[in-house]
Each structure stands twice: as C-alpha cells, then as structure tokens.
Design brief:
alpha+beta; four-stranded mixed sheet; single chain
Length: about 180
C-alpha cells in the first residue's frame, strides 16, 4: 500500500495558466520543509527550497517562484494552526521508513508493505502519526470522497500497524490537509 513509485526524471515545462507550479512539485516542497521542520520565517527559506524545485524538474524562474510561494502559503497556514505547536513541542521522527514483513510467502522477501511515514511524534505516552496532504479540496464534503478515492485511510492503517508492530503501542492517526 505505502510503497512509493520510483522518482521520475523529467523537466517541467512552464505553462502560463499555472503560476504556482505543478501541484505535485508544491507538495514535494512542502514535504521537504516539514521533513526538516523548516518554515517560511527562517531567513534561508527560499535558498533551502530552491534546489528541491530544481530537483523536481522546474526550470522556469517564474514557475519556481510560484511553486515556492504556494509552498510558503501552505506552510504558513500550518504554522498558524495549534497542531503545529503540539508537534513542535513533541519528540518527532520525520520521513520514517518502515517495512512490514511476515512468513506468508506473499513474495520472496515476505514483504507485505513498505513505505515512509511523514511524521511520527510523541507527547508523553501518546503517539501520533501525521500524514500531510497538499491536495486541493474546496469543500468540506469532498474530504471523505478524496480519502476513499486515494485510499488515504488504508495508507494510515498500514502506518499504524507498522508502528504498533514495532513499538507495541497503537498510535492516533491523522491526515493533515494543508490546502
């Protein structure tokens, strides 16, 4: 379920009707910032994001600036939310890889699932998995449909099972829609 596709190598050709850059690039920029807990108030924020925009394949300076501007907007929104303060005060693990294996013979390695958890954090004895999404959702009633369509609930269940198997605790899980 959580296995990521291999990285694509390509150049993103700018389009005039896309002043913010491709949504998937914005998502990557946001994830890189969260992974390193870097936010727009950092003096080197633009310099930090710039190589990640290039690595994603952006070449047009206006589109790079637009993608960084949109990432900044989403990160500022998160930073203003009480969840940021909760996570900031917690012990955190970012981009945590996992592999769930068994002896069922599903494949030669016995791997059932593998993936990367955006953030696992602990406040006291309470463990939480936060999975960040940058999908654009315009209405609250679309959230449930998007979760089912993209199987985000199954993804979180896999993450929770992996954490429970490793730590012996059942974490709270949450999807954090930034857009």
């Amino acid at each position: 379920m959580g296995i990521e596709p291999p990285p694509r190598v390509w150049r993103v050709v700018p389009r005039a009707q896309r002043p913010t850059g491709p949504a998937w690039v914005v998502g990557q920029l946001v994830h890189q910032a969260i992974r390193r807990w870097r936010f727009p108030d950092a003096p080197d924020f633009e310099a930090f994001l710039y190589p990640h925009a290039l690595e994603a394949g952006l070449t047009d300076q206006a589109e790079i600036a637009g993608a960084m501007r949109e990432a900044r907007r989403l990160l500022e929104r998160f930073r203003a939310h009480p969840l940021w303060a909760e996570m900031n005060a917690a012990q955190r693990w970012h981009e945590l890889p996992y592999i769930a294996a068994d002896d069922s013979g599903i494949n030669d390695a016995g791997i059932v699932d593998a993936g990367i958890i955006d953030v696992l954090y602990r406040n006291g004895d309470a463990w939480t998995i936060a999975d960040f999404k940058t999908d654009e959702i315009r209405r609250a009633d679309q959230v449930v449909d998007r979760i089912a369509e993209e199987k985000y609930d199954e993804q979180l269940r896999c993450y929770a099972n992996a954490v429970a198997a490793q730590l012996g605790v059942h974490p709270r899980t949450m999807l954090v829609f930034l857009n």
